[in-house]
Amino acid sequence: MDFIQNENGFFEIRLESIGGQGAYSAGQMLAEIGVSGSDLQAICFADYGSEKKGAPVKTFIRFAPSTTTIRNYSPVEKPQVVVVFHEHLVSTLPITNGLDPNGVLIVNTKKSPEEIRNLFQTNVKTIVTVDGIGIAVEQKTKANTAVLGAIFAALKFLKADLAEASIEKMFGYKYPHLVLPNVETFKRGMQEAKFGTFEVDNKVQFTVPITPYGYETQIVGGIIEGANSFKKDLSASREGYLPEWIEDKCIHCTNCDNVCPDYCFVWEEGVDKRGREQMFLKGIEYNYCKGCLKCVEVCPTGALVELIEAEGYGTTNRYEKPITLFGGAR
Ligand code: SF4
Ligand code: SF4
Fold it and tell me: Do the beta carbons of residue 42 and residue 157 sit within 8 Å?
């Protein structure tokens, strides 16, 4: 896609991610490279709630010709490009809202552009997919660098050679051993990005999503769908790995539960062979799991092992936590 100014005179990008995925760093790099290599003005800023791994983060990049001073710091509502750092985000956030039908949607996924179009039900001309996690697992890096490569493959006005220099600058001082793997990850992201072009309906009107709960409609007590810790889905935080639980090896020692930051382990009361009351591990709620693998480190029996996440593994093997309702829900 070329540099095309929208109705406000800008070229606008929105990065959809969750905390810990490195989207803000990628956004800063994009803005810097636009300024230094393409003679543009640029700003980059983010919108996030709690500073916690797993919390939603929107990063906005606004480009303008070098003769324009950018004074607009409002969130990008009608982006020309949306970049999704993990396909799972589509199940939790309205990520493609406002995307220009003639724009570009870039998604970190194993899926093809056609599959993403069906999954996201989106009306956009160009869809680019890249298996950022697969590349990162092979290169022992992070998926955001591969996604950055796909962005440069899609946006021709940004100079890729400057991105490689920027990666060297970012890692060279503190982590020189990470420079080459990250440059390779970036190049593979560029080369392995898959493009799909589709018919679009230009008559679809932009709508601002309406928050279902406000001052007058707030629920008293109970569980609010989509905004509570019971129904959270952190699957998008994982970077290619998750713990596999081997029940036969488990001695129900609770070590894993003590270190897990997100209460992923599901327990049930029972009695042991001598008739004493004990808690028994029943499984892992993968929707809560960020893939930090702290539990694998502390398991004394090898009942938890590191597994490269196959598509659908978390959904198929999750042990759903029973939810107890307090107060009234409606
Ligand atoms: S740490 Fe290992 S053995 Fe202990 S309860 Fe967890 S899975 Fe079972
Ligand atoms: S990897 Fe283990 S410790 Fe980390 S969030 Fe998942 S279950 Fe919890």
Answer: no
